[in-house]
Amino acid sequence: MNILITGGAGFIGSNLALHLIDLGHEITVLDNLSPQIHGSNPEETSPLYRSIKDKVRFVAGTVCDDAAWREVLPGQHAIVHLAAETGTGQSMYEIKRYVDINIGGTGLMLDLLANTDHQVKKVVVASSRSIYGEGKYFSETLGIVYPCARKESDMKAGNFDLMCAQSGEVLKLLATDEESKIHPSSVYGITKQNQEQMVLTVCKSLNIGAIALRYQNVYGPGQSLSNPYTGILSIFSTRIKNGNGINIFEDGKESRDFVYIDDIVRATTAALLADEVRDEVFGIGAGIATDVLTVAETLVRNYGVEVPITVTGAFRIGDIRHNFADLSKANRMLGFSPQVSFDEGIRNFSAWVDQQEVQVDTYDASIAEMSKRGLFK
Ligand SMILES: NC(=O)c1ccc[n+]([C@@H]2O[C@H](COP(=O)([O-])OP(=O)(O)OC[C@H]3O[C@@H](n4cnc5c(N)ncnc54)[C@H](O)[C@@H]3O)[C@@H](O)[C@H]2O)c1
């Protein structure tokens, strides 16, 4: 197939492109080589871009540009739409940029699919677990609940767990499935919800098979070590490698579902190539919650660099407490089950980081930006 990957120079896109090339597909990448991800001179500063540039047809351009789309669309049989701004915290103050690129870029793609001649039969869009907000919990009093974002006053008092609105009991975390309530707690999450709903609705009307993949926290060799806005494994790694201590938010017990890049590539390929699977959403993760303190301690151990880890009790507005994916549907319909354990994945990731040049640590500046706007407490 001829496959267009938007954002194909990024972390997920470049790995996916290389895998699809191995399977014999022809890949076109549309990517604007955003400096936040690729540095100021991608030829020198972006190993991600360098890994694909000679193997794909690369078109430098933004998904917000009509002419760029008209250049890349002819002859494509499928699109994997990954291009996006991806920082949850940053999305809370760079609102127009996030809306323009994530929602506007997707709108433009769909407009052209609706109004020009093309051969596209399948679209896979990258959604995110961030659309669920807090996800799925169990209350002894109310049964299954989907709690709203936590109150600032509770968090200021050090109460970070989700509590039952009726009884006040601490809620029990459950795996979040595709039927779970959608109520994002960040602008980024809202744009992801919007992207997937637009893609599913419009593609259905055009008889194009569409799939939205709600990725959990993806990590692995190749992820940007210089972007302070997303990816806690890389943020922590860059801090440790610079000899800087790690401040852990809340009480360190907040957790995420960390899924290894190879598993994401496997799931995305399965969704793309399964002709009979269309008009569906899938949660894609490792299906296991790992707390943030464990992540920091494991990385410090792996790098063998002594830096202090401080659990600060501070918190960011828009952050969720926990989330992990229920993989039953992806397993049943895509045959997907993760192959790489967290232990193996973080070992591979740390070994890769050990071989990279140490990046400038700009994390404190990103926190200062949030503090200035009242988003970091
Ligand atoms: N990595 C994760 O943990 C994760 C989790 C959930 C969802 N996702 C989604 O998966 C997709 C890919 O994520 P990633 O981790 O590879 O991110 P990434 O930042 O590494 O890659 C995104 C790519 O898109 C490009 N891009 C940004 N704006 C663009 C624009 N206007 N036009 C063209 N290209 C543009 C960037 O240059 C970059 O190469 C995103 O849509 C993201 O929201 C990622």
Task: Please describe what this structure looks like.
The chain is α/β, with parallel strands linked by helices. Helices cover 38% and strands 16% of the residues. It contains 14 helices and 16 strands. It has helices at residues 11-22, 35-38, 42-45, 47-52, 66-72, 95-115, 152-156, 187-205, 232-241, 261-273, 292-303, 328-334, 342-354, 363-372, and strands at residues 2-6, 26-31, 57-60, 78-81, 122-128, 137-139, 143-145, 172-173, 209-215, 217-219, 246-248, 255-256, 258-260, 280-284, 290-291, 309-311. The strands form 5 sheets. It has a 7-stranded parallel sheet with strand order 3-2-1-4-5-9-14, sandwiched between helices. Helix 6 packs parallel to helix 8 and helix 9 (232-241) runs parallel beside helix 11. The longest helix is centred in the N-terminal third of the chain and has 21 residues, at 95-115. It starts with a strand and ends in a 5-residue tail after the last helix. The mean pLDDT is 94. Nicotinamide-adenine-dinucleotide (NAD) binds next to helix 1, strand 2, helix 2, helix 6 and strand 5.
Descriptive keywords:
single chain, about 375 residues, alpha/beta, seven-stranded parallel sheet, three-stranded antiparallel sheet, 16 strands, about 40% helix, globular, binds nicotinamide-adenine-dinucleotide
What's the quick description here?
Strands 3-2-1-4-5-9-14 form a 7-stranded parallel sheet, sandwiched between helices. A 3-stranded antiparallel sheet has the order 7-6-8, with no helix packed on it. A two-stranded parallel sheet has the order 10-13. The protein is 38% helix and 16% strand. The model has no long low-confidence stretch (mean pLDDT 94).
